[in-house]
Amino acid sequence: MDINNAFLHGDLNEEVYMVLPPGFQSEKPNQVCRLLRSLYGLKQASRQWNAKLSTTLVHNGFKQSRHDSSLFTKGTGANFIALLVYVDDILVACANMEPIQQLKLFLDSTFKIKDLGSLGYFLGIEAKAKADGLNICQRKYALDILKEAGFLGCKPANTPMVHGLKLSQGDGVPLDDVGCYRRLIGRLLYLTATRPDITFAVQQLSQFIDAPTDKHLSAAHRVLRYIKKSPGHGIFYPANMDMQLKVFSDLDWAACFETRRSITGYCIFLGPALISWRSKKHVTVSRSSSEAEYRALAATVCEVQWLTYILHDLQVELNRPATVFCDNKSAIAIAENHVFHERTKHIDIDCHIVREKQSQGLIKLLSVSSSNQTADGFTKPLPVDPI
User: Fold this and answer.
1) Residue 128 φ/ψ, nearest 5 degrees
2) Are residues 348 and 260 in the same domain?
3) Closest Cα to residue 71, out of 61, 79, 63, 80?
4) For the purposes of burial, counting CB atoms within 10 Å of the CB of 385, is it exposed (0-12), middle (13-18) or buried (19 or more)?
5) Are 285 and 318 members of one domain?
6) pLDDT tens for residues 205-259?
7) Can you give the pTM of this predicted structure?
8) What is the domain extent for residue 165?
9) Do 245 and 346 belong to one domain?
10) Residue 290 counted as domain residue
11) Closest CA to 221 of 149, 166, 169
12) Are residues 162 and 260 in the same domain?
């Protein structure tokens, strides 16, 4: 559903004045208007609208999540209802239609809403619910990117990035129109919401938006050619699945040959469904591959902890610890060893959240071979066939 004129519902807590509207006849010069309600264009408008909506939902019996302020929940069992807010767009989920109808009537009497019906298209994401599960993709959004870039008729590529390609700052001829590159990368970043397969390539390309070159643009065009091969590719979430978190954490040590920083990649599955993934360069340089892998594990465990909180808000209880797979046995040994020694005493204390969460039973660390490391594609460009 969508809220009509959402920002006009916000209440102002401070005095705000505006110049008289054009055409308004005033007998006295230099008069201004004092606003009693929010208007579009005010810096306070979005914040005041969010506060008004949150307060209204809480007074109606909803509970706002402490871990994601855009999530509201209410009820239990078949009448459990979850509500997700993005500015003035609202997504509601419930096993029973009666609570949804009651919520619609309440919001319509309070704000006036536009009922958009069952979930089909939301914020550029296409959703198709069937008896066996939910499929989401961004086919229209991907085709719009290809059309804008002039790649609708291009030759498809099998991979989003050439295997072994290393991009660097200032490598190539600077672009005359940097805005074109920036717009393209910005749109590709949003496409990663349903396309984890291009996450690493987009992460690499986004590092050069300040001064892109022709080589960076050529690598971005390779991503477009890869998207052209399957623009409707997305993610499928089965209806009935095992509520068990399976996590893969990987790292490419000192991958950036300019800064010698490592790249972390992880992917988290709830049963067979992929629900979280990331590719990110470290903010510090690690002295060893073991230290780098351990830092990658720390970032992954923090994400697992947050997802556990969110699942708890959604009344999904995990009966078993999250299984975390790592292909570095020394990093696993550091997490399991409760004694500091020469090789680990320089690691920041906050990294030892891995050890703490393992002792609490939140996670269970297991070793996995590099050939079976699912998160490998989030740390480096892979070939079509495994090597």
Assistant:
1) -135, 110
2) yes
3) 63
4) exposed
5) yes
6) 999 999 999 999 999 999 999 999 999 999 999 988 888 999 999 988 877 777 7
7) 0.87
8) 154-229
9) yes
10) yes
11) 149
12) no
